[in-house]
Write a structure and sequence with these properties.
With about 220 residues, the protein is an alpha+beta fold. It folds into two domains: about 90 residues, Orthogonal Bundle (DNA polymerase, domain 1); about 110 residues, Cytidine Deaminase, domain 2, CATH 3.40.140.10. Strands 2-1-3-4-5 form a five-stranded mixed beta sheet, sandwiched between helices. Strand 1 and strand 2 form a beta hairpin. The chain is elongated and about 60 Å long. The model has no long low-confidence stretch (mean pLDDT about 85).
């Protein structure tokens, strides 16, 4: 009962003072919602933080990684992953964003991909005036491999009535030098876009604090 009262006190503190008044551990406690026999929710939150070494690692963790931690399980792991993904989507731009150059593409791509531990390929769907309409994940790869599915990319653009698009993926290692496979995939996408009547705005590789343009 005392542990439940502690969680209730955290909720009341958040409501009264705002979420900024709570520590990272306390915010995670509210997401975890309930402990297990030998550990309270705040104990579990501390364990998750210790495992990840900070929020950045937790934000990019997969559900099965978190579920493997003692006392977490799939339900709590899914809640954590969902919360961080919602936070990431809140950072997505609205339709007023216009791509005037590859620097704009890189800025949005870093918001979406910076800090992830697995490679992810996203397509940034635009209208005819290069206004960003949607950001779509088209594939995820391993730590050292990027998957660029050309057909899925074009289908994603056409399905959302796009007229132009850009492509981006991350290198979790932090080295944003394009690989030979990255260059070949970019050429393939560019040619496919021409055939489909779509305008290809470029392909960038990003990390948390750097990026490069694949020409």
């Amino acid at each position: 009962m005392a542990l439940r009262n502690a969680e209730l006190a955290l909720r009341e503190q958040l409501i009264a003072l705002g979420p900024a008044a709570l520590s990272e551990r306390e915010l995670l406690t509210l997401l975890i919602r309930g402990g297990v026999r030998d550990a309270s929710a705040i104990d579990l939150a501390g364990s998750v933080l210790s495992w990840g070494g900070g929020l950045r690692a937790i934000a990019s963790a997969r559900p099965e990684e978190l579920a493997g931690l003692t006392g977490i399980g799939l339900a709590k792991a899914s809640a954590l992953v969902a919360a961080f993904e919602l936070g990431r989507r809140v950072g997505m731009p609205d339709e007023r964003v216009v791509f005037r150059g590859v620097e704009d593409v890189a800025r949005i791509a870093q918001q979406q991909l910076g800090g992830l531990q697995r490679e992810r390929v996203i397509v940034l769907v635009c209208d005819g005036a290069h206004r960003l309409r949607r950001v779509i994940t088209v594939s995820e790869g391993s730590m050292d491999r990027s998957l660029v599915p050309v057909r899925e990319i074009l289908n994603a653009v056409l399905r959302h009535d796009g007229r132009a698009f850009a492509l981006a993926h991350n290198h979790p290692s932090g080295d944003v030098e394009p690989s030979g496979a990255d260059v070949r995939a970019t050429l393939e996408v560019r040619e496919a876009a021409k055939i489909s009547g779509l305008r290809f705005l470029g392909h960038v590789v990003v990390s948390l604090d750097s990026w490069s343009d694949i020409r």
